[in-house]
Structures are given as C-alpha cells and as structure tokens.
Amino acid sequence: MEEGKDSFDGRLADFFPGIVYVYDVDRRCLKYISRRVTDFLGLPLEDLKDCSLDKFIFPEDLALVQRELEKFQDLQDNASHAYNSRMTHRQGGWRYFRTQGSVLRRKADGTASSLLFMAQDITDQWKGQEEVQALRELLHETEALLQFGSWNWDAATDTTQWTQGLYQLFEYLPEEVADITREFFFKHMSPEDAANFQSHVKEAIDTQTGFECEYGITTRAGVQKFVSTKGKVILGEKNEVVKMIGITRDITPLRYFERERERSIRELNRSNRELEEFAYVASHDLQEPLRKISTFSERLKAKFITQLGSEGSLYVERILASTENMRILIDNLLEFSRMARSSYAFSRTDLRKTIQSVTTDLELKIEETGAQIMIGPLPEVEVVEAEMKQLFNNLLGNAIKFHSEEKPPVVTISSDKATRRDKEDQHLPTDKEFIKITIQDNGIGFEEEYAEKIFQIFQRLHGKSEYPGSGIGLAICKKIMDNHNGAIYAESTPGHGAVFHLLLPEKQF
Q1: Which residue ranges does the record assign to the Histidine kinase domain (predicted)?
Q2: What backbone phi and psi angles, to 5 degrees, belong to 412?
C-alpha cells in the first residue's frame, strides 16, 4: 500500500485513536490501513497489504459489513455513514468497533471508487451496555417470576415511571400507557383504598420516611388482585423530598391462602370444641349410672352373699372390678378433656420442687416396690405448674408400674440444654432455647416400633390383668407438652427399660 494516494495523508492517520483504512470498491480490498491496527488487533501491517475484508473483519459480521458498504454508493459528497461491527484479534476473539466512513474518491460516472473509514474501539462501552441490558432482562425476569414491579415518582415534575413488572401486574403493555398519572393509577382501586393509599404517601412525605400499604386493584382485564406497595422517600441537598421509589408486589395467592387457612383453623377449632364438649358431657353423664351399678352391686353382695354362692359372688366381684376400671377410665377422659381446654397461666417454676411433690404423692407405691427416684439438677422454666405435676405423676407412675419382677425400679431424672439436632428432629423452632429433661427407668421397656403409638389415646401394649390402667396417661402427657409448645418422645429396648425425653422452652413468649 502506498501512503498519500487518493488525496489522503496516511501520516496523520497514525495519530488518530483508532484504525484508519481505505477500501477499494472495485477490487474489494484494502488500499491502505494505519499502523494502529497492530495496537488494536495485534495484526502485522505487512500482512494486510491489498487484503480483503475477511482478513480482519470477524467472520460472523462479514455479511453485515458487506450490506453496510452498499449504502455508501448512495452517499452525497461530504456525507458519512456509521455502523458497528466486530474485528478479529490475532490472539483469538474479537474487538467491537464503531466505524464511520465516507466516499474518498469517485469514478467518472459518480459511483464510489474508494472509501475512507475510521474505526474506534468501543468494546468496553459495548460490554458495559451489554451488562446493563443483561441486568435489565434479569430484573424483568425476576419481576415476572416474583410478581412484582418497581416504580419511582419525581417530585419536581410529578411524574411516575414503572418497570416492566408493574405493567404486567396491571396487565398493560408499556406502549399502551402514555403517562402514569394519579388518575390512571387510582382508577384501578376502590375509593376507600385510594384514599388510604394517598394518606400513607402524604404521611411518608411529611415525615420524610417510608410507607407500606396493602390494597385491592382491578386490572385492565377486570381481574381482582391484592397488592402490597412499599415506598421510600429520597431527599435532596436541602433535605427536601425530591423523589420516592418503591416496589409493588402481587400478594393475591398469599391472601387467599391466609383466608383459607383461617377458615380451616376456625373449622378445626369448632370441631375440637365440639369433640371436647362431647367427651366432657359424655364422661360426666356416665358417672351417675356407674355409681348406681357400683352401689347396687355392693348391696347385692352384702345382702345376698349366701344365696349367690361362689359362682355368683365371682360375677359380682367382676362387675365391681369392671365398674372401678370404668370409673378410672372416665376420670382420665375428663382429665384429658380438661387438658385440651387448659387455660392456666404460665409461671416460673422450679421443676425439682415439682418432682419432689410428685414423689411425695407416690410415696406408698415407692415403698411397696422399693423404688429409687434419683433427681439430678433441674432448671426453672415457664410452665403451668399443675400440668407439670400431672405430667411427672404419669411418667413416674408408669416407670414404677412397669418395673421388672427381678429388680426394684430405679428412675433417673436429668436435664441439659437441647441441641439444634434435638429441635430439628422434633420440628421445633431452632432459634428458641429449649431444656431437655430425660426420665430413664430400668423397667420392662417396649419395642421401638411402638415409640409413637404409646402417646395415642387408649393405646395399650400390655393386658389390663398384668398392668391395670386406662391407656390415656401418656396421651395426657403429650397433650400437656403440646400446651407448652414442646415435645415428648420415647426410646426403649424390651427388657432394658425406657427413656422419655421432654423438650420444654425456657420461655413461652
């Protein structure tokens, strides 16, 4: 290539912060290219002598550049045309350039003979714009996925701008709405909601703080939605309100879920109350006929013992034993019903003193069996003391009742902090502190498969003839732990005793 041809001084081109080149239209090759091509693309100058465009234009952009070159034939003198394309780098990859060109020389018929181009590297700016566009697309996708949109209000012009997500929320296309005016916004709301929204905004501006407001809208398509708007005031240099920004999100599924949950809870509470009332009334009404059966059976036994004979006396004894079992069952049912309707107040209670009181009540059974009750250090916790006493009475009573025939019962009570794993296993909140109380005995134990079944009402693992009882005691224990927002579970191996674990929150509220 020769510098200085076509009225072009190539020496000046080397000072231009880009690549300058002259393109021969007829030969479809370069007549000249500045030395800066090596700086920008790493291509040796001598390799580009009389070369075609495919030597340095990125292959995927060749067709684009050829189409752009055809536009120069229609250019008038002193007019120019610009386009963007990629150029190949010697080390691989490409750089992005903004190319400005004009006709350098024409033929006798006026068509372009050679073209002068100046290409500036805009890779960094282009990548910045590409990143901004990618972020904008990501924001749009996020807004669509999470059903929300962003907005900003300019105080000086009283104009509002919405993001794509907000248009979608109201079911509009951006080009369909010329201006986001107050009238346009409020027409989608009821008068009461509109007044409430304006009140929140005014208070936020007056106090220079933020606001949060929930309200209903009717979309362009007539769909009813519940939305939540959260805004924040932006202050200027003079501490004046210059802007307000925020987000509006669709909370319709959440509100419908909450309404359905509230309805289910009301229905469940109603059903539970009816069941509790039925259990209480049924148990209470059974007491009177039961007393009569017991009384007349005692009179029958006292007055007609000789006439009844040994077989008749046996039948009467069985009636009295069944009556007593029925009385115990009814009493336990009443106790279970009372626990379900518990309204006792929580108080700070020393559990060691509570258990000592229980052992005093069980003193006769302890003496009869030779039981040992070993109580370790126990904390003070917020509990209903009467319910805790009932709980430990049932657990210690069971530990003594289900003892081995070969050895006297030994019951050990200890406590420790509940670990995170303990709370997770029992589905308790891990951010709350719990005390773990362990009650271990050396009794007959039970199969591990019954570890959950034993806490169900009327569930028995042994016959009444061996171990009398109603099968409600552990169900009451579970109900008490539920009332205390805690948990109870058991571990055991037949012949090696049982271990009951109680997880109690240190504080209830």
Answers
A1: 281-508
A2: -115, 130
- CA angle 428/430/432 to nearest 5° reads 90
Cα separation of 82 and 313, whole Å? Answer: 119
Backbone angles phi, psi at 421, to 5 degrees: -65, -40
Whole-angstrom distance, CA of residue 142 vs CA of residue 148: 8
Nearest to 375 by CA among 361, 387, 357: 357
User: How is residue 284 written in tokens?
Assistant: 């209470």
Say whether 137-250 and 10-121 share the same fold.
yes
- Those residues whose C-beta lies under 8 Å from the C-beta of residue 419, and which sit 6 or more positions away, are 436
Domain ranges of the chain: 10-121, 137-250, 261-321, 342-505
Summarised one tens digit per residue, pLDDT across range 492-503 is 888 888 999 999
CATH number of 342-505: 3.30.565.10
pTM of the model: 0.45
Fold exhibited by the domain 137-250: Beta-Lactamase (3.30.450)
Residues 484 and 387 sit within 8 Å (Cβ to Cβ): yes
Domain 10-121 class, CATH top level: alpha beta
Which residues in 86-108 are b (16+ Cβ under 10 Å) and which e? Answer: bbbbeeeebbbbbbebbbbbeee
